[in-house]
Amino acid sequence: MNNNKKEQPSAIPAKAYELYDKYAHGMLNRRDFLTAIGGLAIGTATAASILGGLLPNYALAEQVSFNDPDITATYQTFPSPEGHGEGRGYLVKPAKAESALPTVLVIHENRGLNPYIEDVARRLAKAGFIAFAPDALWPLGGYPGNDDDGRQMQRSMDGQKIIADLKAAATWLNKVDGGSGKLGVVGFCFGGAMTGLLAAELPDVVDAGVPFYGSPPPADKIADIKAPLLVQLGELDTRVNAMWPEAEALLQQHNKTFTVHRYPESHHGFHNDSTARYNEEMAELAWQRTVAFFKQHLS
Fold it and tell me: What is the domain extent for residue 88?
């Protein structure tokens, strides 16, 4: 649980969340986004307070310290011959493992390996997994320290090479020292979409997948999935939710093992505790389910 909750305006208009979602996913440029936010200011909810609530404050996302004695964290490179040649990510292990442990690949949103995703990797290590969070921006120098630049960098890259890098990271992690050979994948937003895609394209590598509010796997690849999926969606995330009914029908048609949860009063990004989109109660429930799911299917 995060005890340093982000201070929020008394009321962030619902329209503001919709605008931020469009901005964060490249459907609205920064100038138009700021202009539109300014038009929403009402009473005590000034444009500055609305914007401050929506944009991330990563100091609030640290639930597990990087120097927590129960974990060891390092940055590691891995080969990616079909991608950018080499990738790098954040590897976190329990400090006192007495046996081989299951591994979990953690895939970030559309802006690189930010502090929130690194903390998610540490949370998994505290729960008894070896976690690895690759940075898709590594070929350009890595996450630049802010999300706006990170989004622009990721948007400029070859998407197919990014996918190849993530597949290489999964293959590398599946054989990492201390690992049991069981691999889970969890991802958020862009990473949620990549979670389903990796389950489809690496069916003999991925043993369980947990996509958070990402688009579903391509329809023509769903039949290839072998891993059970736990799909975590926010009830208010209409853009992503509209994509899932067809996918659910195909998953059922092909007799796949999956569960879809739609969390009440939750926006896109509801698990990210660095912004006002964070829904603490639903995020905690989704995380408990995630950890239990991985323990069930990766043991």
Answer: 58-298
Sign for the CA dihedral angle at 127, 233, 146, 4 comes to negative
Distances (CA, A) of 267 to 74, 262, 276, 280: 32, 10, 10, 12
- 26 and 167 share one domain: no
The 10 Å Cβ neighbour count of residue 259 is 12
Which helix (H) or strand (E) segment is 89 a member of? Answer: strand 85-94
Is 0.85 topped by the overall pTM? yes
Q: How confident is the model at residue 45 (pLDDT cuts 50, 70, 90)?
A: low
- Do 46 and 64 have their domain in common? no
The radius of gyration computed from the CA coordinates of the chain, to the nearest angstrom, equals: 19
Residue 44 lies in a domain: yes
Contacts of 173 (CB under 8 A, 6+ apart): 103, 105, 130, 132, 179, 183
Question: Judging by DSSP bridges, how do beta strands 85-94 and 130-134 pair with one another?
Answer: antiparallel
pLDDT digits (tens, 9 = 90+) for 135-193: 999 999 999 999 999 999 999 999 999 999 999 999 999 999 999 999 999 999 999 99
Residues paired with residue 230 on neighbouring β-strands, in sequence order: 259
Are residues 233 and 138 part of one domain? yes
CATH number at 111 reads 3.40.50.1820
